[in-house]
Amino acid sequence: MTRGGTADAREGGIRRFARTFAAVAVLVLSVFCLAACGAPADEGGAEYSASVMRLYGWRTGEDGSVYALFTTAQTETVYAEAACETVSYAVSDGAFYRVSGYGVRFDAASAAETALACAPAETGASYENLKIVFVYATMNESIASDGERSESDGVYLHTVTASPTDGEVTFEATLRSSVSGAWYAVLAASAVAALAVCVAVVLIVRRRKWRKKTM
Prior knowledge:
The protein is of the alpha+beta class and 215 residues long.
Protein backbone atom coordinates (compact mmCIF):
# COMPACT_ATOMS: atom_id res chain seq x y z
CA MET A 1 0.00 0.00 0.00
CA THR A 2 1.31 3.46 -0.88
CA ARG A 3 1.99 6.19 1.66
CA GLY A 4 -1.01 8.11 0.34
CA GLY A 5 -3.23 5.04 0.68
CA THR A 6 -2.04 4.47 4.23
CA ALA A 7 -2.75 8.11 5.09
CA ASP A 8 -6.26 7.90 3.67
CA ALA A 9 -6.94 4.66 5.53
CA ARG A 10 -5.75 6.09 8.84
CA GLU A 11 -7.67 9.30 8.34
CA GLY A 12 -10.80 7.31 7.50
CA GLY A 13 -10.32 5.22 10.65
CA ILE A 14 -9.94 8.35 12.78
CA ARG A 15 -13.10 9.82 11.31
CA ARG A 16 -15.08 6.62 11.92
CA PHE A 17 -13.85 6.46 15.52
CA ALA A 18 -14.72 10.11 16.10
CA ARG A 19 -18.22 9.62 14.67
CA THR A 20 -18.79 6.50 16.77
CA PHE A 21 -17.57 8.22 19.95
CA ALA A 22 -19.75 11.26 19.25
CA ALA A 23 -22.80 9.03 18.72
CA VAL A 24 -22.17 7.25 22.03
CA ALA A 25 -21.70 10.59 23.80
CA VAL A 26 -25.00 11.90 22.43
CA LEU A 27 -26.77 8.69 23.49
CA VAL A 28 -25.42 8.89 27.03
CA LEU A 29 -26.25 12.59 27.19
CA SER A 30 -29.83 11.86 26.12
CA VAL A 31 -30.21 9.12 28.73
CA PHE A 32 -28.97 11.37 31.54
CA CYS A 33 -31.18 14.25 30.43
CA LEU A 34 -34.21 11.96 30.50
CA ALA A 35 -33.19 10.87 33.99
CA ALA A 36 -32.93 14.51 35.04
CA CYS A 37 -36.46 15.20 33.85
CA GLY A 38 -37.87 12.04 35.37
CA ALA A 39 -38.65 13.54 38.77
CA PRO A 40 -40.94 11.72 41.21
CA ALA A 41 -44.67 12.13 40.63
CA ASP A 42 -46.25 15.26 42.07
CA GLU A 43 -48.39 15.05 45.15
CA GLY A 44 -50.17 18.29 44.43
CA GLY A 45 -53.53 16.51 44.60
CA ALA A 46 -53.12 15.61 48.27
CA GLU A 47 -56.20 16.32 50.38
CA TYR A 48 -56.63 17.63 53.90
CA SER A 49 -57.16 15.03 56.60
CA ALA A 50 -58.51 15.28 60.15
CA SER A 51 -55.95 16.06 62.85
CA VAL A 52 -55.61 17.94 66.13
CA MET A 53 -53.65 20.94 67.31
CA ARG A 54 -52.47 21.18 70.90
CA LEU A 55 -52.96 24.12 73.23
CA TYR A 56 -49.58 24.30 74.92
CA GLY A 57 -49.26 27.79 76.38
CA TRP A 58 -50.67 31.21 77.22
CA ARG A 59 -49.39 34.73 76.79
CA THR A 60 -50.81 38.09 77.85
CA GLY A 61 -50.33 41.19 75.71
CA GLU A 62 -49.81 44.75 76.85
CA ASP A 63 -53.22 45.68 75.47
CA GLY A 64 -54.93 43.09 77.65
CA SER A 65 -55.32 40.47 74.94
CA VAL A 66 -54.86 36.87 76.02
CA TYR A 67 -53.13 34.63 73.48
CA ALA A 68 -53.80 30.88 73.41
CA LEU A 69 -50.87 29.14 71.70
CA PHE A 70 -51.68 26.12 69.51
CA THR A 71 -49.46 23.85 67.43
CA THR A 72 -49.73 20.52 65.61
CA ALA A 73 -46.29 19.47 66.87
CA GLN A 74 -45.72 17.29 69.93
CA THR A 75 -45.32 19.34 73.10
CA GLU A 76 -44.49 18.56 76.72
CA THR A 77 -47.46 20.58 78.02
CA VAL A 78 -50.93 20.08 76.59
CA TYR A 79 -53.88 21.97 78.11
CA ALA A 80 -56.37 20.74 75.51
CA GLU A 81 -56.71 19.66 71.90
CA ALA A 82 -58.74 21.31 69.15
CA ALA A 83 -59.82 19.82 65.86
CA CYS A 84 -58.05 20.88 62.67
CA GLU A 85 -57.15 19.55 59.26
CA THR A 86 -53.65 19.17 57.85
CA VAL A 87 -52.12 18.40 54.47
CA SER A 88 -48.63 17.66 53.19
CA TYR A 89 -47.67 17.78 49.53
CA ALA A 90 -44.79 18.07 47.08
CA VAL A 91 -44.92 19.49 43.55
CA SER A 92 -42.31 19.98 40.84
CA ASP A 93 -41.01 23.46 40.13
CA GLY A 94 -39.32 22.82 36.81
CA ALA A 95 -36.98 19.90 36.18
CA PHE A 96 -34.49 20.74 38.91
CA TYR A 97 -36.51 21.99 41.88
CA ARG A 98 -39.33 20.76 44.07
CA VAL A 99 -41.67 22.58 46.45
CA SER A 100 -42.79 20.77 49.59
CA GLY A 101 -45.67 22.18 51.58
CA TYR A 102 -47.53 21.75 54.85
CA GLY A 103 -50.94 23.25 55.45
CA VAL A 104 -53.26 23.60 58.43
CA ARG A 105 -56.79 24.90 58.66
CA PHE A 106 -59.13 25.18 61.64
CA ASP A 107 -62.24 26.95 62.85
CA ALA A 108 -61.39 29.93 65.06
CA ALA A 109 -64.62 29.74 67.08
CA SER A 110 -64.11 26.05 67.87
CA ALA A 111 -60.48 26.65 68.92
CA ALA A 112 -61.59 29.58 71.10
CA GLU A 113 -64.23 27.43 72.80
CA THR A 114 -61.60 24.79 73.54
CA ALA A 115 -59.20 27.39 74.94
CA LEU A 116 -61.78 29.13 77.16
CA ALA A 117 -62.88 25.81 78.62
CA CYS A 118 -59.43 25.24 80.14
CA ALA A 119 -58.03 28.74 80.52
CA PRO A 120 -56.32 29.32 83.89
CA ALA A 121 -58.23 31.89 85.95
CA GLU A 122 -55.19 34.13 86.30
CA THR A 123 -55.10 34.73 82.53
CA GLY A 124 -58.42 36.57 82.62
CA ALA A 125 -59.29 35.08 79.24
CA SER A 126 -62.70 35.85 77.79
CA TYR A 127 -64.40 35.65 74.41
CA GLU A 128 -63.77 39.37 73.92
CA ASN A 129 -60.03 39.46 74.64
CA LEU A 130 -58.99 35.99 73.45
CA LYS A 131 -56.66 35.53 70.48
CA ILE A 132 -55.94 32.17 68.89
CA VAL A 133 -52.32 31.78 67.76
CA PHE A 134 -51.20 28.89 65.59
CA VAL A 135 -47.43 28.33 65.91
CA TYR A 136 -45.21 26.46 63.46
CA ALA A 137 -41.63 26.09 64.72
CA THR A 138 -38.66 24.98 62.64
CA MET A 139 -34.86 25.20 62.59
CA ASN A 140 -34.83 25.42 58.80
CA GLU A 141 -34.26 29.03 57.80
CA SER A 142 -35.27 28.32 54.19
CA ILE A 143 -38.90 27.54 55.02
CA ALA A 144 -41.34 30.27 54.03
CA SER A 145 -44.96 30.70 55.09
CA ASP A 146 -47.98 32.97 54.87
CA GLY A 147 -47.70 33.77 58.58
CA GLU A 148 -45.57 36.16 60.60
CA ARG A 149 -42.01 34.99 61.13
CA SER A 150 -39.66 35.56 64.05
CA GLU A 151 -36.40 33.97 65.21
CA SER A 152 -35.08 33.07 68.65
CA ASP A 153 -31.93 31.05 69.40
CA GLY A 154 -31.88 29.48 65.96
CA VAL A 155 -35.55 28.51 66.00
CA TYR A 156 -37.84 30.15 63.44
CA LEU A 157 -41.44 30.67 64.50
CA HIS A 158 -44.18 31.12 61.91
CA THR A 159 -47.43 32.28 63.47
CA VAL A 160 -51.01 33.09 62.48
CA THR A 161 -53.18 35.03 64.91
CA ALA A 162 -56.97 35.01 64.81
CA SER A 163 -59.96 36.22 66.78
CA PRO A 164 -62.83 33.86 67.71
CA THR A 165 -65.02 35.48 65.04
CA ASP A 166 -62.58 35.01 62.14
CA GLY A 167 -64.13 31.79 60.87
CA GLU A 168 -61.83 29.39 59.06
CA VAL A 169 -58.14 30.10 59.58
CA THR A 170 -55.46 28.71 57.27
CA PHE A 171 -51.69 28.41 57.45
CA GLU A 172 -49.23 27.16 54.85
CA ALA A 173 -45.47 26.60 55.00
CA THR A 174 -43.37 25.78 51.94
CA LEU A 175 -39.82 24.75 51.17
CA ARG A 176 -38.21 24.97 47.71
CA SER A 177 -35.37 22.50 47.32
CA SER A 178 -33.27 21.12 44.48
CA VAL A 179 -33.77 17.64 43.03
CA SER A 180 -30.29 16.24 43.60
CA GLY A 181 -30.74 13.34 41.18
CA ALA A 182 -31.50 15.71 38.33
CA TRP A 183 -28.44 17.84 39.05
CA TYR A 184 -26.20 14.75 39.28
CA ALA A 185 -27.56 13.56 35.94
CA VAL A 186 -26.79 16.88 34.28
CA LEU A 187 -23.28 16.93 35.75
CA ALA A 188 -22.62 13.39 34.53
CA ALA A 189 -23.95 14.22 31.08
CA SER A 190 -21.81 17.36 30.96
CA ALA A 191 -18.76 15.31 31.91
CA VAL A 192 -19.43 12.88 29.06
CA ALA A 193 -19.89 15.74 26.60
CA ALA A 194 -16.66 17.37 27.80
CA LEU A 195 -14.82 14.06 27.41
CA ALA A 196 -16.12 13.72 23.87
CA VAL A 197 -14.80 17.17 23.01
CA CYS A 198 -11.40 16.40 24.55
CA VAL A 199 -11.09 13.14 22.60
CA ALA A 200 -12.08 14.88 19.38
CA VAL A 201 -9.44 17.56 19.95
CA VAL A 202 -6.77 14.93 20.65
CA LEU A 203 -7.66 13.04 17.49
CA ILE A 204 -7.46 16.21 15.40
CA VAL A 205 -4.06 17.12 16.84
CA ARG A 206 -2.69 13.61 16.26
CA ARG A 207 -4.00 13.58 12.72
CA ARG A 208 -2.28 16.87 11.94
CA LYS A 209 1.01 15.68 13.45
CA TRP A 210 0.83 12.44 11.50
CA ARG A 211 0.18 14.33 8.27
CA LYS A 212 3.27 16.49 8.85
CA LYS A 213 5.41 13.37 9.33
CA THR A 214 4.18 11.79 6.10
CA MET A 215 4.69 14.89 3.97
